[in-house]
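Lecture 7 notes: from sequence to structure.
We start with the chain below.
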Amino acid sequence: MKLNQLKYSTYEEIKNKQYEKLREITGEKFNLLFKESGQFIGYQEMEMDSKYLELHEDISYMKDSVSLHSHIFYEILFCRRGNIQYLIGDMRYQLRPYDIIFIPPGASHRPLFGEQLTEPYLRTALWVNADYWKTCSAQLKELEWKNAKSERWKSHVIRTTGTILYQFQKIFDELLQEEKEKKPGSELFCRGLFLQLLCLLYRNWNDQEMTELKTEKAVLLDEIIGYIEKHFAEEISLKSVASHFLISESAISQLFKKQMDVSFYKIVTQRRLIEAKKLIVDDVMLKSIPELCGFSDYSVFYKAFVKEYGISPKEFRAMVM
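Predicted structure tokens for the same chain:
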């Protein structure tokens, strides 16, 4: 279905529809997703209620402002519809329906929308508690699997076909059905479905019907993002990056505004904050974090953290520890 065929004809109607869907997914957590100003914060600071799994289905009818963010849990996205690109770290992928995206804890990521959506972006998101993932993976000889996978797979995205695609789709459909109906024993049933999903990956990691998706050919934006990934803990300025890539500062500013809907400095700050969250989870002392992430002092770090996430570093630590 094309965007202009949707029954929601105005921006406000579309936005309200998405808010209704968000409220349905998050329940009591809905109000935690917005700052007092009404600005959308997103899912990045939400703590899982379950010690195992959580599932929801998201749909974007129009170009969203989704920040570069990370989670403290694993996220598996099953792309059902839409022709967007996805950024994970400094790797950019062109998605198509039925691609599966794996995002580990602490990995920076966000969707990249084009000038406009030609059709809604529909995906099923499965959140997996990090400790539960580790427990399940250990039973599948995690080290052996990890070593074998690392020799062939460098990607966060796999593309499936044939029988394996049908099996993956069936599992995600059943997970959604269980989430909707909430039958007795539903949580245990969903855990069983997740184990099937994990076993399919383990069995078929080198199967011809399940292949890694290669990243898009590197362009200037990717090179600059890669530079930020490697140097975010250092002093970075628009001027220094422009000099490094032999391009004007205005050209870089326009590139980020057009491709990512945010400024160059916003991306740098978001990447530093993602590293800060990772260090907090790793129990690094708060006073040591600014220097490790590229902030000039604790005050600057604190203000940036609260502005981005709506909670203080200390409150985040209490939430995840």
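Points to note: The first helix runs from residue 11 to 26. The domain at 220-320 is CATH 1.10.10.60 (Arc Repressor Mutant, subunit A).
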